[in-house]
Prior knowledge:
Layout: H1 2-24, H2 27-33, E1 38-41, H3 45-52, E2 88-90, E3 98-101, H4 104-107, H5 113-139, H6 150-174, H7 179-200, H8 211-228, H9 239-274, H10 279-297, H11 305-310, H12 323-343, H13 345-353, H14 355-363, E4 369-371, H15 372-384, H16 386-410, H17 436-439, H18 447-464, H19 467-501
Antiparallel strand pairs: 1-3, 2-4
Membrane topology: Multi-pass membrane protein
Protein name: EOG090X04CK
Family: Belongs to the TMEM161 family.
Amino acid sequence: MAVLGVQLIVTLLTISIMQKVTERFSFGKWILCKSGLVYYLHPTDTELRKLAGIPQPKPKQKPKEGENKRGKHKRKWVEEPVEDKTFTVPRNLDLQLETAKILPRDVLQLKFFTEFIWLVDYSVFVLIVYVITEIYCGLIPKGNQEVNLSMLWCLLLIGFALKSLCSVTSLYFWNTEAAAERSLVLVGGSFCFVLALGLLLIDESNLEIGLDAAYTAFNQSASVFLEHQAMDSEGPASKLILKLCFAVWCGITGALFIFPGLRVSRMHLDALRYCGERSVLKMFIYINLVSPFLLSLLWIRPLARHYFSVRIFGSMEAPLMTDQTFDSMRLWLCIVLSLVRTVSAPSCFQAYLNLAQEKIESLKKEAGRISNTELQKKVAIIFYYLCVVGLQFFAPIILCVGFTLMNKTMGGYGWFGLHGYNPDECSPQQEQPVTLSNLLPSDESSLGAAREQWLVALSSFRQIFSYEVFRGIFGFANWWMQFLSFATIGCGLAYQSYFDEV
């Protein structure tokens, strides 16, 4: 209970300082305003008239003092002609947009600004709380027997990231002009649902997602628990129903990842064109493009675990690493490569902002005329949706990190190859089975009795939802996030490459 008390203190202190710290320093605002981003200003009406050779409107003459707009013998007001501020200019206008640095007052008007700032700042605090909890539980081994409150923070982080993606995707359904986008979202979700059904049928000796082992462990532990309660039950739902539920979840997340993947692929390709001779930045961008593909391969046993922890090369007496070390390496790679993708965020955002000038350049190749308001809207809308693009960039990364942290802690893994759980040494039977009578409150009101009841309730939860169950759930979720990022980004790269050639 002492460890739980320390976790509560850390949680309360973090909550109390979150608001005070974010007022002075916000990582989300730093990315938008302090990372050197510049945006393009839309041309004014005066500039467009000057470039198009349209005469400027005459300024209104102010009435002289003592002069009334009414005549002496007029009873009605003199109606002044209403000036039409809309005019047309040639599309091939030689126009160069001016740039300006993004200031804090400029981002307040952006769409989804508060959602973007909250998600990025909250993810930073989640990492801080998780690191403090891991250090404390590593110093005090009894901490592994208590509830890890950092998992609640991670669960909320995953919920916030999914909610942000749902809010961004809903824009395509509320907009009457986004029929093509709605169709793409529905087609992508349906394709991911069918794809997940096929992947879930693959033998887990090749794709180690762990759902079969999780189902077996949950079925056995639930049956044992019900037997101790003198209840007759055939066990939980069938494996087919559970995999169908996972496939539905995969379809929903696939629909949410379609446009973020397309957007990220476009930003990375544009960032490669704008980075010039900066080889370090190019290396980061290339790593970001291939990292989801490499991470998704780590769950394919013949391609990853077989070579690292089973096969013996040459004159070696043992494999390169043990199974536990391979699991730890996979967790580290998921975290490190996600942080590397975060480092390239300013370059990708600047590549997105440069789309304003690219739109003007493509407009010069067209014939005809365009209204001033429509031209200004084409430029201003790029900066207006910057935070929407930011959510599409960060939300998939945050989901990958959140599921990785929950997979590590809830699955009993270790960061350095020393796991807290070995499935070969554990069985669903317990020496002291938990019954409902143990969970009922006793007459004793002392702190020791309350602690014993809490430990009994926690033991009953761990008896049913064991490490093996959480390894299957969060391991599959982690792999699906990596695979989905790779699939959507790959589709975006293929799409951009095809139209560039055309």
